[in-house]
Design goal:
By secondary structure, the chain is of the alpha/beta class. Helix content is 33%, strand content 27%. Bound molecules: ribose-5-phosphate (R5P).
Length: 293
């Protein structure tokens, strides 16, 4: 197997290649003065198996175009099968038309990837796993929650309750709490389709004097996390750890989360941030080692 690194995920690609004892292919890359991207691939044996590693975190559109070009370039060299590991998969939050006339961006992006020649897409905690199941290529959605929770268990002291917001909160908080031997609680969260405002509901959760963790798949603007932290603090929670798989932290959301009362933020390196304590290279390597075809 050959690991082809995209410019957006060099560290992860390097680590995966090391874990697997695989060759790392670094395509020559430059950007033209007008901003267009240029790649040149080295001599390759088209019978090898190729895995591109390229996240599509911000700047999303640039990273997506680079992925499409690399995929298409491998196809141009007659490679039979192309897999891509996309640690953070962009546009997954627009997986349907919430309002009449809205473009379903996620399915449009997946179609482009298929069209470029992608046979298999591997990602981590996709925002809309249900939409991924309808993708026009084989997909795998890896789960980094156990790795994050193991880190919290070792590095953040005793946690007594784990909270998770949103549609996936029930499942996410259960998986996370099991690892810590803690209780779990799912938080109802709603986002207004027009204004984007988030409202949360912690029901009858009792947290006075407790150490708690909140785990979400994505922290973007931080609105959801900040509201949950504030409500937990208002109810008397002692220590609050804020965790997520993908830390976008738009407009310094991480600083606002700390100001709202979180003791620490823990996230993975799918998007490199100062809070990326958990590496995903081992999770990816295990999948690639064990997957067939
Ligand atoms: C929602 O379904 C997601 O799981 C996250 O809760 C959401 O994407 C977080 O966004 P923000 O940080 O902007 O509140």
């Amino acid at each position: 197997m050959k690991i082809v690194t995209g410019p957006a995920s060099r560290n992860i690609a390097q680590e995966v290649a090391t874990h697997l004892g695989a060759e790392l292919v670094i395509p020559y890359y430059k950007q033209f003065p007008d901003g267009e991207h240029y790649f040149r691939l080295p001599e390759i044996d088209p019978d090898d198996e190729f895995v591109i590693i390229q996240g599509t975190h911000p700047p999303q559109d640039k990273n997506i175009v680079q992925l499409l070009l690399l995929t298409s370039g491998l196809r141009q060299l007659q490679v039979r099968k192309v897999k891509a590991v996309i640690p953070y998969l962009a546009y997954a939050r627009q997986d349907k038309a919430f309002l009449r006339g809205e473009v379903v961006s996620f399915s449009a992006i997946l179609k482009l990837m298929k069209e470029a020649g992608l046979d298999e897409l591997v990602t981590i905690n996709a925002h809309a796993p249900w939409a991924l199941e309808k993708a026009p290529m084989k997909t795998a959605n890896l789960d980094a929650i156990p790795e994050i929770m193991s880190f919290i268990g070792k590095d953040c002291g005793k946690i007594e309750i784990v909270f998770s917001p949103g549609k996936k909160g029930q499942e996410m908080s259960k998986v996370a709490a099991n690892i810590l031997g803690a209780e779990h609680f799912s938080v109802t969260s709603r986002r207004d389709s027009l204004t984007g405002d988030v409202s949360i509901d912690l029901g009858d959760a009792r947290v006075s004097g407790k150490n708690v963790a909140i785990i979400d798949d994505i922290i973007s603007t931080g609105s959801t996390m900040i509201q949950v932290i504030k409500e937990l603090k208002r109810r008397g929670a002692l220590r609050v750890i804020a965790a997520c798989v993908h830390g976008l932290f738009i407009s310094n959301a991480d600083n606002q989360i700390i100001s709202a009362g979180a003791e620490r933020i823990i996230t993975t390196d799918t998007i490199p941030t100062p809070h990326s304590y958990v590496k995903v290279s081992k999770l990816i390597s295990e999948y690639l080692k064990n997957s067939k075809g």
